[in-house]
Amino acid sequence: MKRLVMLGAVGMFMAACLMHPLGANAEGMSAYQIVKKSEALMEQAKDSKSEMLMTLIDKKGNKRERKLLSYAKNYPDGAKKALLIFQSPADVKGTSFLVWSNEKKDDQQWLYLPALQRVRQVTSSSKGDSFMGSEFSFYDMGTRNLEKNTYKLLKEEAVDGQACYVIESIPKEAEFYSKVITWIRKENFLPAKMQFYDTKGAFLKEGTMTKIVTIKNINTPTHIEMRNAQNGRATILDLSNIQYDSGLSEDIFTQRYMQRGN
Predict the structure, then answer these.
(1) Largest Cα–Cα distance of the chain, in whole Å?
(2) SS3 sequence, 103-168?
(3) What is the CATH number of domain 9-258?
(4) How does pLDDT run across 218-235, given as a tens digit for each residue?
(5) In degrees to the nearest 10, what's the CA dihedral of 136, 77, 85, 15?
(6) Hey, where are the domains in the chain?
(7) How far is the C-alpha of 189 from the C-alpha of 187, rounded, in Å?
(8) How many CB atoms sit inside 10 A of residue 6's CB?
(9) 142-193: per-residue pLDDT in tens?
């Protein structure tokens, strides 16, 4: 879809690419309408902030934890801005990641590394790289140009007992994924899981979103897992202290603020 956190981190992850008109399903909704409704429900808030625990799990099951702050802001014209700031451990403390997203343009992304004391822009060629050693790529952390994909409503299928629409997204030019398949819950139109296939067509990784809580009438996934089938690693994101519409300052979403590390 087009919003992950996430950024917030949720918003960016769920930014996977699903909006294009298709034939209607049995209930009279097209794939476009399904995804559009899902996105609208996820973007009701003007802004959000939260705390995040990122758990990195290697193929042997060893775990490392990182704590972050997440800020996100939606604009009336469809633009979005998000900032992640690493709080701990010491080796990543102060590292920050800024994204400016626009539906009609490629994302602008910047990474601040305290050890180098400089902000560097993430280039298009680097967006397939791992984001801070996680199973999310820089590409996953942004939004997509909707017209660069074709779409198909595959079927309806249950995930953990919940009926879902299953929608396939195929990019016209496969830069990082050859396709993405998303299961969207029929009950509340939140994504349940997503499967990503590499540019050779092989299954790469699967993301799931669970532990949904309602905050200001907004259904919010608070537990996100990305498990890589090819390298055996996984990344888990747990969100807490989520606040919507707190009136975040525009100054937060700047390179100057990213270097403050607070």
Answers:
(1) 56
(2) CCEEEEEEEEECCCCEEEECCHHHCCCECCCCCCECHHHCCCCHHHEEEEEEEEEEECCEEEEEEE
(3) 2.50.20.10
(4) 888 999 999 999 999 999
(5) -10
(6) 9-258
(7) 6
(8) 31
(9) 776 666 777 889 999 999 999 999 988 888 887 889 998 989 899 888 889 9
